[in-house]
Structure formats: structure tokens, C-alpha cells
């Protein structure tokens, strides 16, 4: 009997089964970058994820064929997780009118379509749930004139009268002055995160990330510069992190126990030199220590975006170094069940490899065990990459080739293997 071109299981159409998934190391003793990681019930075949990237191309919050092609391009070329862009939990939480959303049921099906394809290739799909807060109702970046207003006015489907924030403090020149949220508004948005998470599960996503970075709503609650509230959501550290913790609890309760939950933060708002009270790495470490207890599995360490006056100390590991600092602090405190994701300017194979190197933290029965104390020096457990995937959707395959690791290629592309 001739060998059968077998169908991928559970796919809604014929596509050849892809087993093992693309990006799986075939050679023995691969570097950690190409070893699997299991988080709850989900196994990732390597440590390279596609970071969320807004495309400003959705149709009233619905993903389109553009997103299907854009996201699938990374997934079937071997990223072990591809995270859908910031997806708003309410209409006024979009950055631009063309952002992705999950505030209504009709937005489930187009995500399901992406999930079906990604799963048909044996790969995993994540989604980032977000609310843009005081950075909402802007136009797509390629339309925004530097130094001029970026506001999406009503005639281009914006909502300048309904931009909300912890306090009525404008993000910067050219943005909409936001309204201070009432406690009811806060409750509505927390509910929005819960309901959107339920819809994401219905859509078939494997992983949820909560967006608490880059000056968007949850991030702006954390900082005393953007949050001047005098109720239980402002003032002390405990009060400023309250909304984020409520969102985490709501989302964790709404998703299956086996589904990984990630949180992305701006580990510092880069205002230390101007405002000593600002949100800094120490604040993030304090927050991070609370996260495993709330069922968060991984902290995705980004930075900045909460203040136009930020002073970034720019060098290639400006952000991955912070991830390492946080990971080391957690290890020192005996906290080993919060994984760390590093992101930012990772473009080279050797850099990606070294970020997770010496990080022989392995997952055993859902707890992270350290084989060797030395391993605490790894900066992260996962690398997330954004722009390099836009340049090279096949980046995982290129990295493997550069590092001399034999990895599975797509069946259909086998004749082109490097
Ligand atoms: C086009 C574009 C869109 C982005 N959209 C998002 C987003 O939706 N959510 C988010 O948390 N970060 C977003 N980012 C930030 C990236 O996820 C990433 O953190 C950043 O680009 C640094 O990584 P890189 O140097 O690999 O690009 C975006 C970046 C780019 C380039």
C-alpha cells in the first residue's frame, strides 16, 4: 500500500498532518532555545514566540483574511506560540478604530478561523486582551503626523468623547484628554476582560495574555504619575495594582485550569531620573511576587510607553537585561513558578540562544524545578520577538540553521530546507 498523505486531525479541511510541529528539534541535545517547555496543559516545542503586534486592519473589531495570512505565516513556520495583537475588551478600548476586539460574539468566528489553521499545523495561538485607556481613539500610526494631533475624530469612527483613564490626565500633546473612570466604569472593564476571555476560549485560543504595558489602561493604573485617584484604586502600591489583580482574577476564573495565563507589563516607565515615585523595576518585582498566587504563569517583560518624557537607557539588552534582573530576584526569593519572557531588539540567533541559556529550569508536574542554582542566571525562559518576524516570517527556521540545529520544516517546503 502506498503511504497515505494523512489529514491533520480535527482540521475543518484537508491539510497534511504536520508531526512533529515545525520548529521541533530533530537533532539530539539542542540548545535550550529549541527544547520544549510545558506550561500547564500546553507544550511548546521551542522557546520562540511571536509577540503581539497591532496591525490596525480589523473590520469593526473583527479579524479579516489579512490577519489569517499574517499570523499563520509565523505559526506554520515554527514559532511555538503566535500571539494575536492587542484585542480590546470594549469598543472604547481600541487604540485605533481598526483594532481587533472581542467585546461581542460576532468577533469569535474570525479568530476561530485563525485558530483552526494554526492548530491544523500543530501550532499554538495566543491572544492579548487589552484596553487602551487614555491612548485610545487615535489614527493608525502611518497616518499620524509627528507633532500633530493623532486623534481619531468621530468622522473617522473615533470616540474622542469616550476616552477613559484612571485620572483625567492627558497622555501627551495631540491626544484626547481622558475622563476619570468611576468605580462602575472599572467594574465594567473588569467584566469586559472576563467576557472577552470566555470568547477567546470559545474561539479556540490556547493562551491568554493580559496587556498591562505601554501606558494603556492597566499600565496607567500602576503608576502614580498617571493614577492620582484617591479611592481604593489609587494612592498606595496595593491600590494602584488593584485593578490589574481584579482583571487577572476575573480572567483566570473564566478560562480552563490547563490554559496558560501571561501578563505583559512595562517593567519600568523610564521616569526614575525625573520622578522617583514612578513605576520602576523594583515595583515590578514586588508585583511579580504576587502573580503565581493568582494563577499567572509567565511575566512578559516590556517597558515604557506611559509617559512621553520617558528617558530610555538604550542599548541592545536594555529590556532583556531587565527581564534577567526580575528573574534573578524571583529565584533569590525562592519564587520559581513564574516564568519570564524577554522581548525587545532580539534579532540574532546567538542572542536569542543566550537569553534562555543556563536556564535549565524545567517544568515537572507543573512546578518549575531548578536543576542547578547556576541556572538562575538565564535572563528568561522564553524569547518573544516582534519586528524580526515582520522582516523574516521564517525566523525560527533561520535561527535553527544558524545555530546548527536540525528542526522540522513544513512538509510542503522540505525541498527548500537550508
Ligand atoms: C507593528 C507593531 C505593533 C505592536 N503592537 C503591540 C501590541 O498589540 N501589543 C503589545 O503589547 N506590544 C505591541 N508591540 C510591541 C512588540 O510586541 C514588542 O514588544 C516590541 O516591538 C519590541 O520587540 P521587537 O524589538 O522584537 O520588535 C508592537 C510592535 C510593533 C512593531
Automatic annotation (TrEMBL):
Q: Which organism is it from?
A: Venustampulla echinocandica
- Mind telling me what this protein is named? NADH:flavin oxidoreductase/NADH oxidase N-terminal domain-containing protein
Which InterPro entries does the entry link to? Aldolase_TIM (IPR013785), OxRdtase_FMN_N (IPR001155), YqjM-like (IPR044152)
SUPFAM superfamilies, alphabetically?
FMN-linked oxidoreductases (SSF51395)
Which terms does the record give in the GO molecular function aspect? FMN binding; NADP binding; NADPH dehydrogenase activity
Q: Name one Pfam family in it.
A: Oxidored_FMN
Q: What is the lineage of its organism?
A: Eukaryota, Fungi, Dikarya, Ascomycota, Pezizomycotina
Organism superkingdom: Eukaryota
Domain named NADH:flavin oxidoreductase/NADH oxidase N-terminal is located at: 33-402
Amino acid at each position: 500500500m502506498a503511504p497515505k498523505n494523512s489529514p491533520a486531525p480535527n482540521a475543518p479541511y484537508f491539510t497534511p498532518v504536520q508531526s512533529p510541529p515545525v520548529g521541533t528539534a530533530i537533532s539530539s541535545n539542542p540548545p535550550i532555545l529549541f527544547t520544549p517547555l510545558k506550561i500547564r496543559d500546553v507544550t511548546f516545542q521551542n522557546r520562540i514566540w511571536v509577540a503581539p503586534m497591532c496591525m490596525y486592519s480589523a473590520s469593526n473589531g473583527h479579524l479579516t483574511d489579512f490577519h489569517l495570512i499574517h499570523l499563520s505565516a509565523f505559526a506554520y513556520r515554527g514559532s511555538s506560540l503566535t500571539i494575536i495583537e492587542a484585542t480590546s475588551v470594549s469598543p472604547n478600548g481600541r487604540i485605533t478604530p481598526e483594532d481587533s476586539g472581542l467585546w461581542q460574539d460576532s468577533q469569535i468566528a474570525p479568530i476561530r478561523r485563525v485558530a483552526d489553521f494554526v492548530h491544523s499545523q500543530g501550532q499554538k495561538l495566543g491572544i492579548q486582551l487589552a484596553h487602551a485607556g487614555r491612548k485610545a481613539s487615535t489614527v493608525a500610526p502611518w497616518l499620524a503626523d509627528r507633532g500633530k494631533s493623532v486623534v481619531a475624530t468621530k468622522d473617522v469612527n473615533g470616540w474622542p468623547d469616550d476616552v477613559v483613564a484612571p485620572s483625567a490626565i492627558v497622555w501627551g500633546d495631540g491626544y484626547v484628554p481622558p475622563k476619570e473612570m468611576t468605580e462602575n466604569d472599572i467594574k465594567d472593564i473588569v467584566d469586559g476582560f472576563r467576557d472577552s476571555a470566555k470568547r477567546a476560549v470559545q474561539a479556540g485560543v490556547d493562551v491568554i495574555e493580559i496587556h498591562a504595558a505601554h501606558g494603556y489602561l492597566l499600565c496607567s493604573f500602576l503608576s502614580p504619575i498617571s493614577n492620582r485617584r484617591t479611592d481604593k484604586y489609587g494612592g498606595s502600591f496595593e491600590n494602584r495594582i488593584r485593578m490589574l489583580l481584579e482583571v487577572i482574577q476575573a480572567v483566570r476564573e473564566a478560562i480552563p485550569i490547563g490554559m496558560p495565563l501571561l501578563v505583559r507589563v512595562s517593567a519600568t516607565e523610564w521616569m526614575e531620573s525625573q520622578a522617583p515615585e514612578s513605576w520602576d523595576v523594583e515595583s515590578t518585582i514586588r508585583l511579580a511576587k504576587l502573580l503565581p498566587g493568582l494563577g499567572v504563569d509567565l511575566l512578559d517583560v516590556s517597558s515604557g510607553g506611559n509617559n512621553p518624557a520617558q528617558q530610555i537607557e538604550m542599548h541592545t539588552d536594555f529590556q532583556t537585561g531587565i527581564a534577567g534582573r526580575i528573574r534573578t530576584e524571583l529565584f533569590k526569593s525562592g519564587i520559581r513558578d513564574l516564568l519570564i519572557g524577554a522581548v525587545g531588539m532580539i534579532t540574532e540567533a546567538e542572542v536569542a540562544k543566550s537569553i534562555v541559556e543556563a536556564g535549565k529550569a524545567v517544568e515537572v508536574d507543573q512546578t518549575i524545578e531548578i536543576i542547578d542554582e547556576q541556572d538562575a542566571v538565564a535572563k528568561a525562559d522564553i524569547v518573544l520577538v516582534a519586528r524580526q518576524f515582520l522582516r523574516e516570517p521564517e525566523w525560527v527556521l533561520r535561527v535553527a540553521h544558524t545555530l546548527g540545529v536540525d528542526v522540522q520544516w513544513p512538509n510542503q517546503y522540505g525541498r527548500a530546507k537550508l
